[in-house]
Structure formats: C-alpha cells, structure tokens
Specification:
Blueprint (H helix, E strand, L loop, with lengths): L3 E3 L2 E3 L4 H13 L4 E6 L1 H9 L1 H8 L3 E4 L2 H9 L10 H15 L2 E6 L2 H14 L4 E6 L6 H11 L3 E5 L4 H9 L8 E4 L3 H6 L7 H5 L3 H8 L4 H4 L1 H12 L1
Parallel strand pairs: 3-4, 3-8, 5-6, 5-7, 7-8
Antiparallel strand pairs: 1-2
Length: 238
C-alpha cells in the first residue's frame, strides 16, 4: 500500500503486524528504519514548520497515532484501518526484540522514570534484553553514542519529546550503525514506568483516549482543538 498524505504530511497505512513484518525484512537486509507517530496536532505543527514536515515525511513509518488520522482516511476512502499508537508500537517492538534476541537501548526521560520503565518491562516481557539506558539529561553526547554502540543494541527508543527526539535521531543515525530501528516515544517511558496511567481499554477501543485525557487534564483543551481544525482542513482540501 502506498502512503497517504494529509495536508502534505505522509502517513503509513500499515497495521502493527505489517510494520513488524516489514521491519524484520529490513533488519535482515541491514537497513536502518525510523518510526514516528503522527496525529492531527503534529500535522498542524508540520504545516507551520517545514523542518518538522521533512522529519515526518523522511521517516520509514509514519504511524497513525491519532483518531483524527483514522477519520481523515475514512473521509477519503483511504487504507488506514486502525490507530497505531506510539506506546503500543513500542510494546510490540519490545516483544519482537525479545522473540528475536535483539538488544534494546532506552534514552531519555528522568533517571527514575527510565530506570523504572526498564525494570518493569524486563519483569513483564520474557527474554527481553535491555542492554543499556541513559536519562535525557546526558551532557556528553559523544560518550552516550559510544555507550549505545558498545551495547550492541539493535533497537533504540528515544524519549526527548517531539520534535527534539526525531531531530536527535536524524542527527545521529549515521553514527549508530548497529541500531536498525529507531523510535521516538515521547512519554512512553512514563507509561511503562507506571508514573502515567493510560485511558481504560474502553476509551482506547472507541478512539476516545483524547476525551479521557481531556477530562483528566482540562488544560489540554488548546491542544485538542487541533483535531477539528485538522479535519476541517482535510475536508476543504478535497
């Protein structure tokens, strides 16, 4: 399937399983891949910032993280069938790494958060090898890159916030030839550490995670306004 575009921003219409299958092929061929989550807010930002748009469009997989992307695809009779969230994609990739014996490295967030996420994930996913981690406040970047190289990891998850984490990946991919899969994961370490709770499965299944989070954090209203703005612009673009 070809990638879809919304307001000039690419989206990959693949399911979790299809991405994992394709990644397995790319890893076998020695190729590096990047995964970036796309939602209406990020699309709106990309239309104001050409650097962000370039970062998204140059990624290997632009996963449809927001329900707005799924709705936009339906409006256009596209092929996006379901949300592929960043936090769940990370979970699938961790299980894939455990199954295939690939080492994993975590970079970002506060020390307590990333360390706790590491410990809880190792306890919950059999055979998972998290071969190293570093918090998001490392000053010596060259030492960090050397640590990642020496770890032998094949998958790297970066939690520095968007687009900072994607810019970091773009700037350092060539220096990390051992890493075959890069994913910017935002607040996923907070979720896996237990510090932040996700919406109940009921909300997630109906694509209403945004509503649950808004009820918990009313100050998010300005961010949530990106959804109707995005859908209106997609409709007018037709």
């Amino acid at each position: 399937m070809e990638k879809e575009q919304y307001l000039g921003v690419s989206v990959s219409p693949y399911t979790y399983e299809e991405i994992i299958d394709d990644l397995q092929r790319r890893i076998a061929e020695g190729l590096q891949s990047t995964v970036i989550a796309v939602n209406p807010e990020k699309v709106i930002t990309a239309n104001r910032n050409p650097v962000v748009k370039e970062l998204i469009n140059n990624s290997t997989y632009q996963i449809p993280d927001g329900i707005g992307i799924v709705l936009a695809s339906k409006m256009r009779n596209g092929d996006v069938r379901e949300r592929v969230t960043g936090v769940d994609m990370m979970g699938r990739l961790l299980k894939f790494a455990a199954d295939k014996g690939h080492g994993v490295f975590f970079y970002g967030a506060k020390e307590e958060v990333v360390r706790t996420a590491k410990e809880k994930l190792e306890a919950s996913i059999p055979n998972l090898r998290i071969v190293g981690y570093a918090n998001g406040y490392v000053e010596d970047q060259q030492a960090l890159l050397e640590q990642i190289r020496e770890s032998g990891a094949a998958l790297l998850f970066v939690a520095l916030g968007s687009p900072r984490q994607e810019l970091w990946i773009k700037d350092h991919m060539a220096e990390l030839p051992n890493i075959k899969v890069f994913q910017g994961v935002g607040g996923s370490f907070d979720v896996y550490s237990g510090r932040v709770k996700r919406a109940p499965a009921f909300y997630r299944k109906l694509g209403l995670e945004w509503l649950y989070r808004l009820a918990k954090e009313p100050k998010r209203i300005k961010r949530q306004l990106a959804l109707p703005k995005f859908l209106l612009r997609v409709l007018l673009e037709r």
